[in-house]
Amino acid sequence: MTLTSTAPLHASSSAEATQNKLPKRAALVSFVGSMLEYYDFFIYGTAAALIFPKVFFANVDPTTGTLLALLSFGIGYIARPVGAVILGHFGDRIGRKTVLLFTLVLMGCSTLAIGLLPDAKAIGNAAPVILTLLRLLQGLSAAGEQSGANSLTLEHSANSNRAFFTSWTLSGTQAGAILATLVFIPVSSLPEDQLLSWGWRIPFLLSALVLLVAYLVRRTMPETPVFEDIKGKDQVARFPVVALLRDYWRDVLRVIACALIATVSTLTAVFALGYATSKFGVARPTMLWAGVLGNVTALIAQPLWALLADKIGRKPVFIGGVLGCAVLLFPYFMLVTSGSTTAIFAAAMVLYIVYSAPNAIWPSFYAEMFEARVRYSGTAIGTQLGFLAAGFTPLISASLVGEGPNGWVPVAIFVGGCCVASALAASTARETHKVDITDLGKRRA
């Protein structure tokens, strides 16, 4: 009797233990995949600010070359809404895991190709054209990465810790930014001729290793039980985008407006980097190290903000962080343009701590607005349309910036306005931290 009753109990305990490990495993897979994929995406931003004006846009004056390089950075964001529709459709039709594997391969191959691309001296105007096309492929890939990883982790998590586990997707993005910057720091210290001839290619060529590691980590992750359930019940939407725009158009608009907070990220990572080094003589390594310290601070803070959101709700943490960023942009620019290394490091760390609040919360906050059959599409399309503003923030900022020590004021006002719009949109959302995962996205009477 003992043997007969223990065997099923042992099997049940083993299955339960495996089930309990899935949220942690999903969070780890999302973290590593996002880190390695966004390493690829972020090295382009760093190169666009520091390298590409002299390598691919050298046939025009330096100011125009910088604007064209920043435009090529922004063009990657144009592809993202298109990628969101395509990848969101298949993510909601065939599953989260398959699409996430595809995004890795696409990002890795396009980034490797950039590292092998001859410069303008070798092939003339074809070089910036091909560079822009490869940037478009990066954008297509990035469009499906975060939304898929968010859906995967959210749907493997328990109701009480969805924000915490889902926040690790954005922690992976943050880690990708750190990794990209750390690779660029020694490269940027090379003599100018070596940097512009072959040194800048190293971070891009390393994407081959990035692709291999990410693929091996992600390919063994099972599909989510939530998606398997709707698939088993034949509830998968035939055309998820149609169902999304019919039933959730208000939520899509809400996510678009909320996603304007991402303008803070590209402002600090791309525009401020080029602005401080070119206009105020700040050393490139100083600004790069400031980015590393800021992102490390955010990496530590994000899980803590997410734990708080699981306790008190998504909205207060998200809105508080967004409004905090709007205020801190002004002292941030004052300190970054001061020339003091200590002040620059302090400015980056404080702003990133506050920015990490909405950054940690939005993966759960946005995804919980939609039911499972349109969740991938809803978060992908909403965020990527909102991220268009972030993609062109460096270019818009370069156009708005004035002369003199306070030339940054119009830029701070522009991005601060985006933050206020994001907070207003978030205030209209439903609070979901106590809603069961099976009830998420259901229309209220």
UniProtKB/TrEMBL annotation:
The chain crosses the membrane at residues 41-60, 66-87, 99-117, 164-186, 198-217, 252-275, 287-308, 317-336, 342-362, 374-396, 408-426. It is found in: Cell membrane. It is a multi-pass membrane protein. It holds the Pfam family Sugar_tr. One of its GO terms (molecular function) is transmembrane transporter activity. Its main location: membrane. Keywords: Cell membrane, Membrane, Transmembrane, Transmembrane helix, Transport. PROSITE patterns: MFS. InterPro entries: MFS, MFS_dom, MFS_sugar_transport-like, MFS_trans_sf. This is MFS transporter. It comes from Bradyrhizobium betae.
